[in-house]
Amino acid sequence: MGNVLNALPKSQQAxxxxxxxAIWMAATRAEAYTAFDRFVSVYAAKYPKATETLxxxxxxxxxxxxxxxxxxxxxxxxxxxxSTFATVRHRTTRTRNCVSRSTFLGLAFKxxxxxxxxxxxxxxxxxxxxxxxxxxxxxxxxxxxxxxVQQKLAA
Length: 155
Hints:
It is a single chain. This protein is mainly α. It has three domains: 2-61; 70-74 and 123-154, no CATH class; 78-116, no CATH class. Helix content is 63%, strand content 4%. It is built from ten helices and two strands, in the order αααααααααββα. The protein has helices spanning 2-6, 10-24, 29-43, 48-55, 58-61, 72-75, 79-94, 101-116, 127-132, 147-154; strands at residues 136-138, 141-143. It has a two-stranded antiparallel sheet with strand order 1-2. The longest helix has 16 residues, at 79-94. The two termini are 34 Å apart.
């Protein structure tokens, strides 16, 4: 979202942010595609760089629809990764001149271990077993009749 917003003037960013949120907050992949196409049609003429940035990653951005709906909240954000790295980056910049590679790795490990204590538990942990068993999901719901296709993809 940040890369797309950086390609837009400040006056358009609030509206564009709301329009992009409508894409990945849609209840189904079809609704997300509709919102995606609406965003592209509104902004493509004046801001082609912004729409190209979004269009090139369309499938990756909407891949979370292939997972249980309970997990979508976790998959839509990178906050856990970014906040953990920010913690490590903040501490290591303070001690940059007095650490070797091995002490740095130990420090980073301990910092990440501490940060892990504040992470949220995953919603719907029982759905992980279904994913590992190869059950396909469409729009957050398990699809039972798609098993042979999934097995071919796994092979």
